[in-house]
Amino acid sequence: MKSFLARVALVALVTLSGGCAKPLLDMSEKAAERVRRQPLRGQPYHPLVFQVDLSILSYHLYAQSLVWAYDGYYEEAGDREAAMQRVWRWAKRVGPGQQGVGLDAIRGPGILAGQPSNELHDPILFRYGQIDPGAPALSNDGSKWSDFQPNPRISARIGEIWISRRAFGAGHASAGPVTSGTVELLPLRERAEGDEARPDLLIAFEGATGDKGELLQPSSQSLLGLVLVRTIDAETYDVHIMFRGSRSGSAVRAAVEASGTEDAYGNPDWITDLGFRLVPVPEVSAVPGHEVARGMSCSIHWTIPQLLIALDRLVAQRRAGPPRIVTVGGHSLGGALAQVFASSLLLGDRYDPEGKGGGMPASLRAWPWRQLKLVTMGAPRIGSEVWAEELTAGALESRFYETHLLTPYDLGAAAVTNIDIVPRMTDPTRPVALRVLLPDDAVTSGRPLGEHVGRTIYLERPSYFSLAGTEEHEPQVIRERMTEVLRDERIPPVSWRYRELEELTPAYGQLELGSPALYRASAETVGAAWARSGSAVWGAARFERDLGTFLELVPEREE
To answer: Kind of pairing, strands 183-189 and 236-243?
Structure first.
């Protein structure tokens, strides 16, 4: 109610000062038709929709990597805190390296990888060897199923898959040369000889969240994004780097638990999200006066070696030349991390393309980093105004969002049907920064500190009488609105839908919350989806073993 009254008061002020100023947005069919006629220059469909789909794929792979996808965040345990403590005791008991080797090893808490652990974090467990972009994924966050279906326009072209993660027991690669042995690359799918129909390479990279820079509070590991090396022709390829957004069970509880400064606990992603105190970080920007959110900076500090080493060894050292275009993006947390990654390359003192900082591998220095395409969806504000303006208008040659006292909206925003977007996204000679969003996305406007990076692309016309909400933040909603405006039949259907728990698990409402019977029913839902997919990485025996471990540790009720 207070938000609505404030918006009404704002409208009155703007009206008295000369009218309700709004950006001029042409979302007509005529504008959309002009965009549809534009050449895509190697993109499979509209480049902004393609970036949203890669963002959805990053969530998809994360969901597949959850060891206990039927209750990955312990939302349905009878006593959640007690259940998580039992998992922590189990992790200490089995110790590092005793839950499988290679890609079958369980990751998450540092102790399982021979690294420092943070017992303030929820012990979320992952196994990277079970990802498959051509198979579905189901994950239960305690209130609904996230149902991911393969996007054949992406997955059918992928012939090779690798995992990039920090080596067992290794320290941080940025403490020394970026080519040090602290990162290991593991093949999940080798390229078949002569398989010309599947020319693309996927790299899923591990990253770290849950570190705000506080002493003795290390991060936890998980899949934090992907690289898609997309072949255009025999000599040309593009590189797409996508960071995933936050995942958790109860977002309200996760936000409350993560909000502390010295005593943040709970979901690691949310601890990073709420580490929004702005601090100078020369690795991200060496320009005096520039400050960025410490949570995002810590995450990129721990993640960037896994990414650059994979690009060096799996792409640059295999290809005869650099890619045509490099695009970096992400949704929500992923959009924030994409900004910090771009800044680290273009403004920082360690990973500069010229190699003066010593962090950029020699094989990557000729890549078109200075012509980088940065695309974020629903990204929060994470840096000082001078930093955001320099990254947007200076390094990436894009229109900066200048805030106005009497309007919450960007008066210089463009519509997704803007005639300049596709040519700029497909031009290898110029950089660009775009922030795609619905105007009333509460996450993009609610950050207490910082300014936005990138030219604003609105997906609908702003209204001073609407209320900011969280539904507008969802990737599926962003994509749905984008496709409604573009009206382009080349765009494939959305691949992420939410499903009611009873819809996919009919017995759900008839079983006691936290009971072994309910967990078996939920696990059967996940296992059946995998089994129907025919995926080569599906392992029924391993799945049953994991369920047995779960039922020993988490439920408190006997059948």
So the answer is: unpaired
For residue 25, is it left (φ>0), alpha (ψ between -120 and 50) or beta?
Answer: beta
Q: What is the pTM of this model?
A: 0.94
| Closest to 427 measured CA to CA, from 39, 138, 131 | 39
Q: With 60 as the cut, is the pLDDT of residue 447 above it?
A: no
Structural domain includes residue 542: yes
Reported residue count of the chain is 559
- C-beta separation of 507 from 525 below 8 A: no
Contact status, residue 478 vs residue 377, Cβ threshold 8 Å: yes
- The total number of structural domains that make up the chain: 1
Q: Which runs of E-coded beta strand occur in 383-518?
A: 414-415, 432-437, 455-458, 496-499
Give me the pLDDT at residue 196, please.
87
3-state secondary structure of 16: helix
CB atoms inside a 10 Å sphere around CB 260: 15
Distance between CA 308 and CA 363 in Å, rounded? 10
Label the pairing between strands 183-189 and 220-233: unpaired
**Cα 403 from Cα 336, distance rounded (Å):** 19
For residue 88, being part of any structural domain is answered with yes
- Rounded CA-CA distance 462/473 in Å is 15
Of 298, 213, 300, nearest to 261 by C-alpha is 213
Contacts of 245 (CB under 8 A, 6+ apart): 55, 58, 59, 330, 331, 332, 333, 334, 335, 378, 475
Confidence band (pLDDT; 50, 70, 90) for 15? very low
C-alpha 532: how far from its chain's center?
27
Q: How large is the average pLDDT for residues 417-444?
A: 95
Positive/negative CA dihedral, 96, 263, 76, 72: negative
Alpha-carbon gap, residue 292 to 384, rounded angstroms: 6
Question: What is the reported pLDDT for 449?
Answer: 58
Task: Give CA–CA dist 338/303, Å, rounded.
Answer: 11
Contact 108, 126 (CB under 8 A): yes
Domain of 79, in residue numbers: 2-553
Question: Do 513 and 76 touch, CB atoms closer than 8 A?
Answer: yes
Predicted local confidence at residue 377, as pLDDT: 97
Closest CA to 514 of 448, 457, 559, 469: 559
Do β-strands 236-243 and 326-331 pair in parallel, antiparallel, or remain unpaired? parallel
Q: Give pLDDT tens digits for 253-263.
A: 999 999 988 88
Structure tokens at 380: 């929060």
**Residue 20 falls inside a structural domain:** yes
> Residue 435 and residue 335: Cα distance in Å, rounded?
9
Instruction: Please report whether residue 559 resides in a domain.
Output: no
Mode of pairing for the β-strands spanning 496-499 and 137-140: unpaired
Spatial neighbors of 393 by CB under 8 A, at least 6 apart, are 399, 400
Question: CB neighbours of 478 closer than 8 A, spacing ≥ 6?
Answer: 52, 331, 377, 378, 436, 437, 438, 459, 472
pLDDT-above-70 percentage for the chain: 92
Scanning 312-400, the segments in alpha helix (DSSP H) are 333-346, 385-389
